[in-house]
Amino acid sequence: MKKILTLTLVAVLLAGCGAAASTATGLGHSVSIAKSKDATADVAGVAQVDTVMAAVTFDGAGKILGVKIDSAQTKVNFDATGKITSDLAAPQKTKVELGNDYGMKKNSNIGREWFEQIAELEKWMVGKTVDQVKTMKVKDGGAPDIADLNSKVTISVADYQAAVAEAYENSKK
After folding, report:
1. Which of 20, 59, 72, 119: disulfide with 51, CB 3.0–4.6 Å?
2. Angle, CA of 64, 146 and 104, to the nearest 5°
């Protein structure tokens, strides 16, 4: 909830920072439980909810003036009997809050952490329309296949595109 409020405040600030008279701000999200796994006698199960959040400000022509994207990857582990084994009191952080502690950099073939990659994607989106964002050329695996991003972003972008598109729809209400 704190993250949604933060994104909302950022969106309001983006809308008020010298933007043209005709601007609109919207919030969008994408939620998936696809990475959840059943428990077996040998391996613990995990209920995982991946939530992408986007706060986006658009000009009167529908071009993106500012965008902030974050993702919460919430995991609850359980054993084969269904007993929860996760610390339910442990604080949950988004990928931006985790920063370098998220741990993507060590496995990244471009040497960039998640928050660095999403910042590059956000920069690319500024000045684009939602249609341009949604029709971005991607490689197998979903990473951008755009010269400006090839060496900066290797993460799959489908959920971010969906959240930005929803933010646009919500900005018109």
Report:
1. 72
2. 90
Structure tokens at 125: 């989106």
Residues 147 and 108: their CA atoms lie apart, in Å, by: 18
Q: Which residues pair with 31 in a beta bridge?
A: 51
The Cα-based distances of 61 to 6, 16, 19, 28, 68 in angstroms read: 26, 17, 13, 19, 19
Residues 6+ apart with CB under 8 A from 86: 75, 76, 77, 78
Three-state SS at 61: coil
Burial tier of 124 (Cβ tally within 10 Å: 0-12, 13-18, 19+) = buried
DSSP code per residue over 86-99: S-TTS---BHHHHG
The amino acid present at 15, given as its one-letter code, is A
Question: The pTM is what?
Answer: 0.85
